[in-house]
Every structure is written in structure tokens, then in C-alpha cells.
Amino acid sequence: MTLGRDKLHFLNTPTPIQRLDNISEELGINLYLKRDDLTNFGTGGNKLRKLEYLVKDAIDQGCTMLLTVGGAQTNHGRLTGAVAAKYGLKAAIVAVDPYPGEMSANLLLDGIMGCPVYLVQQDGVHTDSELEKAAVAKVTKEWEEKGEKVYFIPVGGSNELGILGYYDCAVEIAEQVEEMGLEDVRLVSTVGSFGTYMGLAVGIKNENLPLRLTGVGISPKPHGLLNYGMKYYGRIKEYFGDELKDLEMTEADFNLTSDYDHGAYNNPVKEVREAMYYMGQKEAIIVDPCYTGKTFAGILEMVKKGIIKQGENVIMLHTGGIPGIYTKHHRVEMEKELADFIHII
Q: Which of 118, 154, 277, 288 could make an SS bond with 321 (beta carbons 3.0 to 4.6 A apart)?
């Protein structure tokens, strides 16, 4: 029970925090990974913590179907389908995206778990937001006519309720850090749909936890990360009301950077792939090209620039997203760069 909201309990938590010994030695910092990629359904990932709250809310409302949105290769959509399968619910995903030419990565996993994906084609007239809204209404009506009660989950599970998954995680990390005897810890989180970062930020501030949070944006926001974050925080304060009446956060409480997003969401970036290879070859851990690869590449740059100081204790949140390495536009670049590792004898 957190902030007066209950949740399902299906995760194998606490997830481990592991020191990356080889990379730490080379970088001159103490780098750790919080392994939320090892959560236990649908190949794992950070969205499952949010879904513990969101699916509980859906079930409490008597809903029989989960409907969410995202890109064609949405990790959140895949995990929504996974939890729906586990709890005997139906699920579907609406994505304003073209068909990528093959059923791979998350699209393949969605199908394996019985979760249909509705790909909405751009028409050159309406905005993506308008197309998405119309498609959600159409799909909702279609399934309600079949007798389902539909529960809508926004992109990434990132609404006011969804942040509680990472409020809990902030407490979990602080407890682990204390057990490990670590002090002055910088926690680094990917910032995409913002729910994970906001849950951590609110949890750290409201619980007075000994963690310094840095958010690495992986896609541009129209008016900047800080503007988006402050508006989100305002909605959270309004939603929880008296439960957060003593919580006061200003712009100074949000350490966010957009310096490492490389200009777009989920775009193939050579520096990110190089960071992925470095992680794989030094620590045998896979990060993805959309989220964790960009975040890790950002950490490498921050160390190089001295933003992360020598000797710092740094925990990077590994949010999962591994199926992203199998998406065609990333895979073809990696196949070219890694071709020399194939020897036919």
C-alpha cells in the first residue's frame, strides 16, 4: 500500500543491484545496474511495476480488457499484453505507426501472448494525436460491442497512478543501498514517457531518501523536459491531494538532461550502438538501442566530460527493452557492424 493505493503483487522484487566491475575499473567510477530488466513476465522491464497498480485499478473497476497506446514496437504494450494474459484479461495496442515490414521483436511477442496491435496509418491531414484518439475510440467501441469493459492505459503507463511503481522502487533502492553500505549515490534513469523518472523523483523527495536522481532524456519534448516534468508533477499533486500536501518540489528538484537524445525517438545512432557493444563485451549485459543504450551512452559521455566525477557511486536503472535489438532499422545496422564476428569454416 502506497499513498492510499493498493496494487497487485506479481513481481520478483527486489530486483538485484549489481556492480559492473570491469567497466567501473576502466571509467574510474563505481557503476552499478538496478536490474529491472529481470522482472518476471513478458521478458521483463520497468513497465511491470506500474502495471501492478494499473491492472489492480482495472480489476477493481470490473474491467475485462486493457487497451494501451505506443509505437509499433512499444515495450509497455508488450508488458500490458503479458499481464493481461497472466490475469485472464484481454488486451490490445493502438499505434500510429506504419507496418515495419516484418513481424519481429515486440510485435512478435505481442502475437505470441495473444495481444492484437492496431497500426494506424498517417493520412497527412490529421495529427498523430488526433489519429490515436480516434483509433482508441473505435477500438474501444468494437470491443465493448463484444461485451468487454475496456480500461485505457496511457503511453508507458505514465499517468498519476502509474508513478507509484517507481515510488516503491525508490524506497527499494534506498534499502538496498543502505545494506550495501553505499553513500552519496547518483541514480540514473532513462526518461521517455516520464512515469518512471517521476515516480523515482517523488518517492525520493517525499520519503527523504539518500539518492541523487539524474534523468537522461531519450527523445525531445516540444517545450523541453523540465517544462513537461513540472506539468506532470502538478497533475500528481492534484491527483493525490492531501496525501502529498507536504510535498513541495521546484525546478531545482528535477535534474534532467536532453543532451544525449540524439535528436529523435528510437533513431539508429552509432554512438549508442558502440555503447551497447561495450556493455556486452565488458559485462555480458545487453542494453537496447532506444532506451538503456542511449542512457548508458549518456553516462559514458558524462564521465568523459567530468559531469560524473571520478570515484562516484552511480546506479543506472536497467529498464529492459531488450526486444528492441531485433527491430529491423536497428538490426540491419548492427548486422553490418558485427559481420566480422561470423566465420564460416
A: 288
